[in-house]
Amino acid sequence: MGSAAGADGLTQQQQQFLRDLFPGRQALFPQEQTWIYGSDAGRFFAQPWAVVRPSTLEQVQEVLQWAQTERVPLFPRARATNVVGGCVPLGGGVVLSTLFLDRILELDERDFTAVVQPGVSTSRLQVRAEELGLFYPPDPASVGISSIGGNAATNAGGMRAVKYGVTGDYVLGCQAVLPGGRTIRSGGRVHKDAVGLDLTSLLVGSEGTLALMTELTLKLLPRPQASASLLAGFAEQEAGLEAAGAVFRSGLLPAAVEFMDRKAVECLRSAGACEIPRGTDCLLLFKLDGSRSCLDSEIEALERHLREHGPNTLSTGVTPSEEEELWQPRRALNPASFHLGPDKLSLDVTVPRGSVGQAVDRAQDAGRRNGIHAVTFGHLGDGNIHVNFIHDARGPGQAEAAGKAAWELVFQVLHLRGTISGEHGVGLAKLPYVELQLDREKVDIMRGIKQVFDPRGILNPGKGY
Amino acid sequence: MGSAAGADGLTQQQQQFLRDLFPGRQALFPQEQTWIYGSDAGRFFAQPWAVVRPSTLEQVQEVLQWAQTERVPLFPRARATNVVGGCVPLGGGVVLSTLFLDRILELDERDFTAVVQPGVSTSRLQVRAEELGLFYPPDPASVGISSIGGNAATNAGGMRAVKYGVTGDYVLGCQAVLPGGRTIRSGGRVHKDAVGLDLTSLLVGSEGTLALMTELTLKLLPRPQASASLLAGFAEQEAGLEAAGAVFRSGLLPAAVEFMDRKAVECLRSAGACEIPRGTDCLLLFKLDGSRSCLDSEIEALERHLREHGPNTLSTGVTPSEEEELWQPRRALNPASFHLGPDKLSLDVTVPRGSVGQAVDRAQDAGRRNGIHAVTFGHLGDGNIHVNFIHDARGPGQAEAAGKAAWELVFQVLHLRGTISGEHGVGLAKLPYVELQLDREKVDIMRGIKQVFDPRGILNPGKGY
Predict the structure, then answer these.
(1) Radius of gyration (Cα) for chain A, nearest Å?
(2) Least CB-CB distance to A445: which of B251, B421, B453?
(3) Contacts of B417 in chain A (CB under 8 A)
(4) CA distance A32 to B281
(5) Mean per-residue pLDDT for B252-278?
(6) Could you check whether B104-222 and B340-423 share the same CATH topology?
């Protein structure tokens, strides 16, 4: 994968057009400046022909008009924290970065809405909202560096999805520019809208294949008054999963319910990331939030449900620093998993909530059968589990073994009526599996819709479907 | 409006095809049997050519294949509780009723999902879910008689939308048959899915113009342990709206926040529907739900916020019968509003939450200016207000005055950055206003998408956009 074409993919005239439209640092051509725009947090790479970084709507409109006329592929790119190659310019083309479209245009305490450009970082919006007593719930793991535009393009989830839903649940409307430069507005700042087809939901999660969102109107909530976290360890994975199931059935709705399996515990221990009692087979991590007056009784109820399933450790944190300490293992996990090996093939499958235990078993089986490590963790509440197949690609047959384990897991997940991606999207990484999950008729319809938005196929070609 | 064509719109051969495909009572042709299928809860009417009531997927597939080949318009119809003419066969065609597709196929306590056919009544699903300790939150006003399929086709909202969202937030996936008989599956029983375009959200709210949903997979929540209701009256409308705003800003998230204006109070009083202290200018009705241990402190907090705004009455109900009594005025309101006049022109506009007060003022102004009654009430939490322009169409110029008031309100709502429909959809009733709200580019895209699903335009033609 990868190409060394560089700016040679564009004619002199085309380069000049981009230079005129994007003055100074807004356009990049030299390979040493553009190559960093050829990758993302996964390990895919392709050399861009050029990178443009618009700062105005008009620039976006003009470049999309030009690209359609000239049939130049455009690859929208936000902060590139995605891990599936979603914004890699495979096949060659111009990278369209939203880096300079980074203004928070409005934060409205009475409407409970924010209007932002796509390049605004998720955490910056969260901090600004909190200063006003407001709350933007979606919190993908990359929240500190990812952007709202990228979150919307991939319909990013995160830890709090079990209670609060995913990014798409907070996008009330958007302005978006289509190939050819046409600009549409969909939805708006109302919390309910029953007029016309829901194009906003169609654009959310479309992985930049339909249009470039230039402005997003987001729903905000009141900031919860208080929160608390609980970490519980169990000697048997089954007991841990049973405990989580009992919590849901009781009517408690935690903001987050995270799970880490035996291998994950092993990683954390060998990385020295935290103290975990011997004989712990799985960890559960809960976050509760809500009104202060409720929280104590909810903590009590949650502790009671967990105790009934015999944890070998149970800690509760109610201050920010206590909470932070309990979340430490979860945050340390991804880096810690490299203690088992230098390479990782990662899947973010989702199964129906009742099948999480089976999915975890099958991920572990797939690792074992193929002689590699399967580290399993994730968002238990919505059935979204991350599986890192850790291996050493330099070892004989290891990369193939990881690939084989991934295929086996994909089949098992589909058998459990799950999906091959809960929040990362398809990008390039999951393309080989898509046709296993989606029937021909659905793919035909999706391609028909793509054709309506992007008749010449210039926007993020080769991704998603 | 209306046509007397009856079965004459179909050839003998076409009628025979339908008779063969739909044995016995599944097909209706005589006008005295079909006319009831020509209307809905609004006052639109058109005589169907015939009514077919499939009970199997295969019948749906065959009739959609046939209709496309023969270019016969098909009008999907669920329980027809919509008030905008959404399923009226204007222009002539065959009504496709989902009445016999009424099975709850699955209720899963571990996955927190239900799989239902479109004709299942909303309340039946709710009752069955509650028996298992589960909860299906969407509760449009017509919940007792409306169906899940109709709710999904219109993305129906309801009282609890402020906390729990609308129907679309609970549709995880569907099976749907397209014109031509093609069948797609979109989404599934997972709570998160990032693979492919979100066709489920596109079908939800499409008012039956794209496909016929034959199976819906719904997300369920755990049943809340307890609930309570509060009714507060205020001498000044402004104080009431301020009180509601203060509640939201405090971080409390009630399941419902309903509002009734001065005219609404007047209707209720003249209908003798309930006791309301003299000098009450507006009523607020709250429902809280959640864990039993939280509820008391939330009631206390809510009462405190309301008292700060000087209500002239405040009642709290915690048992089912006490709660029911407090909700009585809200339920009595629609029938009671006819005490002001025999005819009603009703809008369900939605504005940004912070503009609700202005929208209510403008609705009242529009009524006053045109010499008719404007009864304003609705779902304050999400800015969705219902305005009934009550008049007597037999009086000179009254019908015109109501129409003029509606147009004035539509302009005002759009000026406030609202939408002309929060939950009823467009159907026939709102068609005249659509192009004021949606820009040309968006309409073009919607029509392009319609073309992908329904190239010959046979499904619910003339509706929505």
Answers:
(1) 23
(2) B453
(3) 188-190
(4) 69
(5) 89
(6) no
Q: Would you say the pTM of this structure is higher than 0.80?
A: yes
Bridge partners (DSSP) of residue A213 are: A176
Compute the distance between CA of residue A346 and CA of residue A330 in angstroms, rounded to an integer. Answer: 16
Among all residues of chain A, which has the CA nearest to that of B187?
A: A419
B43 Cβ contact partners less than 8 Å away, ≥ 6 residues apart? none
What are the tokens at A158?
């995160």
How many residues does the structure list for chain B? Answer: 465
**φ/ψ bin of A163: left (φ > 0), alpha (ψ from -120 to 50), beta (otherwise):** alpha
Place of tokens 């509820």: B295
Provide the Cα torsion A197, B143, A166, A175; round to 10°.
Answer: 30
CATH 3.40.50.2000 fits B224-334, yes or no: no
pLDDT tens-place string over residues A240-297: 999 998 998 888 889 999 999 999 999 998 888 778 888 999 999 999 998 887 899 8
Closest Cβ–Cβ partner in A166, A189, A449 for B449:
A449
Contacts of B205 in chain A (CB under 8 A): 194, 197-198
Tokens of A53: 């970084």
**Does B213 have pLDDT greater than 70?**
yes
> How confident is the model over B416-440, as pLDDT tens digits?
999 999 988 999 999 999 999 999 9
How far apart are alpha carbons A265 and A277 in whole angstroms?
10
- DSSP one-letter code for B147: B
Closest CA to B164 of B229, B222, B240: B222
State the smallest CA–CA distance between residue B248 and chain A in angstroms.
Answer: 7
Whether the CB-CB separation of B78 and B142 falls below 8 Å is answered with: no
CA–CA dist A216, A175 (Å, integer): 7
CATH architecture of B104-222: 2-Layer Sandwich (3.30)
Chain B hits for A193, Cβ within 8 Å:
350, 419, 421-422
Tokens of B342: 């025999």
Spell out the domain ranges in chain B: 104-222, 224-334, 340-423
> Between chains, do B183 and A441 touch, taking CB under 8 Å as contact?
yes
ipTM: 0.94
- Mention every residue, 6+ apart, whose C-beta is less than 8 A from residue B361: none
Q: Torsions phi, psi of A23, nearest 5?
A: -70, 155
Q: Does the distance separating the beta carbons of B185 and A439 come in below 8 Å? A: yes
Adjacent-strand bridge partners of B215 = B175
Q: How many CB pairs (< 8 A) connect A and B?
A: 297
* Phi, then psi, of B173 in degrees rounded to 5: -170, 170
Residue B289: which H helix or E strand, with range? strand B282-290
- Mode of pairing for the β-strands spanning B94-97 and B74-77: parallel
> What CATH topology corresponds to B340-423?
Alpha-Beta Plaits (3.30.70)
Question: Which chain B residues are Cβ-neighbours of A188 within 8 angstroms?
Answer: 417-419
Q: Which residues does chain A have within 8 Å of residue B112's beta carbon, measured at their own beta carbons?
A: 248, 353-354
